[in-house]
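Here is a typical sample entry:
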Amino acid sequence: MLKAAHNQYGVSLLELMIAIAIGSVLLMLGIPSFKSWIQNTQTRTAAESILNGLQIARTEAVRRNTDVRFNLTDASGMVAWRVDCVNVVTMQPDGYECPMGIQSRVGNEGGTNARVGISVAPFPSSPIPASYFNDPGVAAGLPAGVTFDGLGRVPLANAGVDITLIGVTNAQSATARRMVIVIRTGGQIRMCDPAVSLASNPQGCS
């Protein structure tokens, strides 16, 4: 007994061309959003690296009960930093030491599009004026640093010299997300987004 033949249908050239055209349009529409996401991610990653370096400096200062300094080292604004003991102590018989280089990051580590600038202006008391979170500008005030003492605080004697604010921007886009890191004299360190209101989002600055 003969089996009935089944008709097979393929995709016509016209249908294929239409599908490719639609796919191309969707891809072109998505590229700007993807590019913006990449740039914002680069900025936030750089800010988190700096935040991590500051936290290391503060933690080491408390752990070693001595002054430890966080330095932004690149004069062009690249995200390069190092954490050093202010008073270097070589290895002692009891095992204590306080080295020059506790930890560091070089400018070409990770994304290279992020840029920083700093301010040493004293942090205002509440309410915090929004103008304080204005971008200090790429490489403004660099190189520069901030010292934490054995209690994890920023010495009052360093006011006007040590970093109080770090702005992180993206060199490839003026519209990319910007991050701010604030260091208070009590040693508190906070990263925030100046474009977001603190009242509506805990990641906001003011």
About this structure: The mean pLDDT is 86.
